[in-house]
Amino acid sequence: DLEATLAVNIRAPHVLTAALAPAMAERGHGAIVVIGSWMAHIGHPIVGLYSATKAAEIQLARSWAAEFGPRGVRVNTVSPGATRTPINASDGDVIAAMTAPTPAGRPGTPEEVADAVAWLLSGRAEYVHAAEIAVDGGITAARTA
Predict the structure, then answer these.
(1) Is 127 an annotated catalytic residue?
(2) End-to-end CA separation in angstroms for the chain
(3) What is the pLDDT of residues 9-38, one digit of tens each?
(4) Which among 19, 76, 107, 128 is least surrounded, fewest beta carbons within 10 Å?
């Protein structure tokens, strides 16, 4: 589990950014969005390794923003909350219970996360650097009950 989680959540974004960002910087423009997670901000049983790797991704994105931003490459993070996907379809009751006391009161959708990513990649977000956008229904910031 350790090697697989590190490979997917730290090594892959690192390798991709190392491959793509220098050419973007040479052109003088580009945008990279790292996918973080709400779990990077909250201690949660059983998923400590996953949470730690997501926290590392968020910090890598900040460092890449500092490194490549002055050369025209924006690097930001989108951190989804509990999002209903085909992978977790069998956990619907758990996800519903987890998100019920949030301001949104429901799980997110992949489309909602994708919309935030698309905005960050667009020209409408040109002044957004080193930001983390929580697309999490409020799970990291507020409770309604």
Answers:
(1) no
(2) 35
(3) 999 999 999 999 999 999 999 999 999 999
(4) 19
